[in-house]
From TrEMBL:
InterPro entries documented for this protein: Calcineurin-like_PHP, Metallo-depent_PP-like, PAP14/16/28/29
SUPFAM superfamilies: Metallo-dependent phosphatases
Domain (Calcineurin-like phosphoesterase) ranges: 14-250
Pfam families membership: Metallophos (PF00149)
Protein name per Swiss-Prot or TrEMBL: Phosphohydrolase
Annotated organism of origin: Paenibacillus glycanilyticus
Amino acid sequence: MPHSLVFREDRTFTIAQFTDLHWKDNGDLDQQTRRLMEDVLDAEQPDLVVFTGDVIYTGEVAQGDLICEDPFGALREAVHSAEIRGIPWAIVFGNHDTESIITREELIHAVLEYPHTVTQRGPVEISGEGNYRLSIQDAAGQSKFNLYFFDSGAYSPVPHINGYDWIRSDQIEWYKKESLKVRGAAPEQPLPALAFFHIPFPEYQEVWDTKTCYGNFFEASVSSSQVNSGLFAAMVEMGDILGTFVGHDHINDYWGELHGIRLCYGRASGYNTYGKEGFQRGARMIRLREDERGFETWLRLADGTVITQQPEHIPGT
């Protein structure tokens, strides 16, 4: 891992979140996705790219043939825009990345071969692949901000529970131990942090239903697990996470604050998947400032539009 993540001289650090690329076969739709990513990266010049799952699509079978016959090649093309620019990039997996022909273990090992990735495999004894923490430092090498990455799995492991997987108790215990480990001499004021994963937890529905939110909710419902494993409660208790960033629901892009944590959707970036007419693909941008407990966020769309103020949603109105 050759890259250190360091605040710039102007004390800012900018992250581009791409989500749900669903890269398949390098066809026309994948090339549209590539152009979107290139345009965003050239315009925003981020310090880090985060891919929040479903980077490749290995699930569907069409006429007896796999849609993605070369997952390693699809991964190479999906991350190419960041790699060729030398921008550090991190990844978490979604439910479609390893549905067939490749395992999570095989995919994480492929990811780790890239020169510019800052992804880590994380502890092998806990659930999933790619649970890890990154630190953003100041010019003197002192940690100022933490980024947590979780593997939110794919589908429910329990036969009588339908739907999606959840972040497991051993992952939550790992996060709590990491959070305690990096508190240093000021446990009452932990370093601020963000968290990235693919499948939203149930609190994304709660924040929309109960709090003022900003952005769009075009899905029928939040596609979270039917099981609430307690990750959000752990984040509230630890007091370090300021915001969470997910994908999975391609036509949701809202954010709202619940118990002091801003729950944010990305903006779906890939063209090889369902969307909504008039709802452009894009990316969510995040800007941190050294020694500030907060972040700015905005959207950059495929046509170059920058959205800094999303529509307000007030429950019950």
